[in-house]
Each structure stands twice: as C-alpha cells, then as structure tokens.
User: Fold this.
Amino acid sequence: MNNKIRIGGVTEHFNLPWNLAVEQQKFQQAGVDLQWEFFPGGTGVMTEALRNGELDLAILLTEGFISAYANGLKAKIVKEYITSPLGWGIFTGQKSQFYSVYNRLPKKYAISRLGSGSHLMAMIHAEQRGENIEPTDLIEVRSMDGAMHSLTDNETQIFYWEKYTTKPHVLDGTVRMIGEFSAPWSSFLIVASDTALAEKREAIEQVLKVINEESKNFIASPDSINLLKQRFNMSDEDANTWLQSTVWSTDDTVRKQGLENAKQGLLKIGNVFPGLEIADLCDSRIELT
Assistant:
C-alpha cells in the first residue's frame, strides 16, 4: 500500500478532530503516513495545491470545490465532512463608513484568492442583493491576516469569513461585523485528486475510517468545549453554540440536493456550466442521497 497521504485544511476549529487524531497518532496506528499542512489562504490555495500534485487530499468549501472542478480540477469528493452550512460573517474596518453590506456606495471586497469562499460567497450574496461585483472590485489579500490589514487601511471595505474565526478581531476592535450570510449547502468536503485515488485508494479509505471515528469521539467528548476554548480563543458560550450547530458526517453518504444548491448558486454568477452532473463530482464509493 502506498501509505503516504498529504492533506491540507484551514486553520480553523472545524479541523480540530483531524489535529487531535494526528497528535494521538491515530493515522499512524491505521498504517497511514499522514502529513497534515495548514493552509491559512483557504480553499483557493488548496485547490491549486491539488491541481499541482502538492496534496493528495484537501478539506475544501463545497462551493470552492465545485467551482474548481468546473474549471478543470481533476479531483473527486470522497466524503462530506461538515454537513451543516457555514456561518459567514460580513466584516468591515473599524473606521469604515459601512454599517451594512446593503449600502450601495462603491466598495472593494477583500478575498483570500480567486475561487476561495471569501470570493464566491461575496459574489453569490451580491447576486442575491441585485448588485454587480466587477473584477476590479476584488482585492486578493491571501489570508485573514491580510484582510485585517486591508480593511484597516481602507484598501477594501467588505470581507466574508467564518464568523467565529474572525471574532477575536472584532473583540480587539480591528473590524466590525455588519452582517451574516449562510448558504443552503454543506460547509466542507473531503476531496482527493484523481491521481491519489488511482495510486493511494487503500490509504485514503483508511484515512476516512479514522476521521469518521474521531469525529464521533469529538462530538461525544466532554472535553471538546474546553479544547475549543483553549485552542481557538472561543468563549464558553460561542464554543457551546458552535458545537451544537455544527454537524459532522460520519458515513459515506453525500446529500445530492446540497451539491445541487451550490451548483445553482454558482451558475448564477457564471462560475460553472449548466451541464455539470452532480454524480461526476463524486468518487464511485460515494452514496448520493
């Protein structure tokens, strides 16, 4: 078995079960040499790493993967990871004149990278509001830290990012949250490159078994709240609320309607083609429900 698996994920609380499994050598015990890498730049950077053969697996935003697939990424969904929708916060600089994203004044959007969630969510939400975002309105800032600098300098005025991850920057006065947004599809998928599936399928299946079990353990553990507070600077209330509202998938099913919803949202902003088949996004072992 080719047992070396290179995997990437964002530096957020969603991936704590992965981090715990690595620390406890769960993958090693299952016969897999799993090499974890954090990607602060998010989904857009990871899809490029998959494309370039730098990663075998990545934990990607649903809309980001579908967009990348439609634009030629050779990869498949091997698991739905977080079934519940992502709670996006909409942020602006502390001294910004914006108090609502619905303000029609001209504005620039901070995005970590083209094809990232911060890009696609801004586009999807603007389409729903009846606004048009021009390419020149998008400013790549590479990461959340880059966005904080950009918003503070008023180079950009609007930024979409997961609200709990960004909350420390609200509490320290760097930015203000001026709205929230949530789309009707799963937060995160586990995606494997076609090359990895051809060469490392047995190891990938072992990885998925381990994370299914670790996710169950995390949900049930009385220590999870304290771990979230310690590692991600979350308050007791936020950790409890987030944990209760977050649903991990622990089987091999993927909800077809969720993928269809994401496809339709991307169609409206021109990021995918109408003939995209949902089944083509998924590995053969996936059960669409």
About this structure: The two ends are 31 Å apart (CA to CA). The first helix runs from residue 16 to 23. The chain has a mean pLDDT of 96. Residues 88-181 form a domain with the D-Maltodextrin-Binding Protein; domain 2 fold (CATH 3.40.190.10).
